Amino acid sequence: MPNRVPFHDVLLSTVGTPEQAELLDSSPRSRVWRVRLADSRVVIVKQVTGTGDTSADADTRFAREVAGLRLAGRGPGPSVAPALLATDPSARVMVLEHLDDLGRTADWMPGYAESLARLHALTGPADAGALPLWSGPTTADAESFLALARALDVPVPSAVPDELAGLLERLDPTPHHALLHGDPCPGNDLRTADGVRFVDFERASLGNGLVELAYFRIGFPTCWCAMSVTAAPLAEVEDVYRATWRGLTGKDVPGDLADACAAWLIQGDALVERAHRGTADQFARVPTEDFEWGYVSARERLVHRLGAVADMTRDHDHLHALGRLSSAMAGGLLRRWSNLRPLPAHDARPW
């Protein structure tokens, strides 16, 4: 059994000897085991692999996750991530605290929002450089989004290009130092007796926490299980997030949530899973094919995001024209493809 789990001398001496191991489901970029040690403790062992990536990329993802877990493991109150017990950088292996997941609950979002705010509040200016800065949309993304509007025969208001240029400037992550998870999706959050804890920090970064609070409005943009949150539940989770942040930092959340939602809208790569990002202009595909990710199609994700941005920007000082364009694009998509479905409701979460 020890030969099946990548425990080499460094882990054997610091953690102990594995006696039983169960391989768990994970992404193609890692292998994960639940391991019972000789002293009866149970731990999680994760090995970051190079499947589909270069070795250098796997090294980077391992270092990023380790740094994110160490930052997430500090601070007052219950932890928002499993404790990092040991690492073996030469094999890209980390040993993590095993968490007992309490499973599904219909009212999962308030606890998620609270833990998300607590995660974001753990870091500050002194942590600059500890992780890469959040990588947001680029000028090329904005141009591709406008090209999609034209391909759908939707007129682009003359003010939109300048609004998008201003948006990109405001999205500069440099002034912000929140600890971002990078992929805070259902399945990467575990409901424990001490609150929600997040796992899988391979995309951790520093930036503005609003880009992850935006997940509720924009339909969980990096997740296969896209879903819709509306009305009272949406107001509640945003209030929980903002109140938690204010209680921990003594300040209001900086930035503009509409900007964060618009950032996700104009990124074509947010229509596909990670393995396909950076491989094609995804917006250019939308007029001719409706590609699926999970159980939701690209056009269905896009209609939801367009509607969310349109709703948020009707009276917005800097994004009013983008809001009008978003409303027109959503209408154009629905007229062309009347069978597009709304995103599943948040209480239909698959786990």
Q: Can you describe this structure?
A:
The chain is an alpha+beta fold and 351 residues long. It is 38% helix and 14% strand. A 5-stranded antiparallel beta sheet has the order 1-2-3-5-4. Strands 6-9 form a two-stranded antiparallel ribbon. A two-stranded antiparallel ribbon has the order 7-8. Helix 3 runs parallel beside helix 8, helix 4 (139-151) packs antiparallel against helix 5 and helix 11 (298-312) runs antiparallel to helix 12 (320-336). The radius of gyration is 21 Å and the shape is globular.
| Biggest sheet architecture | 5 strands, antiparallel
**What is the element string, with H for helices and E for strands?**
HEEEHEEHHHEEEEHHHHHEEHH
Name the average pLDDT: 93
Strand order of the largest sheet: 1-2-3-5-4
Number of helices: 12
Task: State which percent range the strand residues make up.
Answer: 5-15%
Report the end-to-end length measured between terminal Cα atoms: 30 Å
Secondary-structure-derived class: alpha+beta
Q: What characteristic shape results from the CA principal axes?
A: globular
E-strand count: 11
What percent of residues adopt helix (DSSP H or I)?
25-40%
Low-confidence stretches: none
Based on CA atoms alone, the radius of gyration comes out at 21 Å
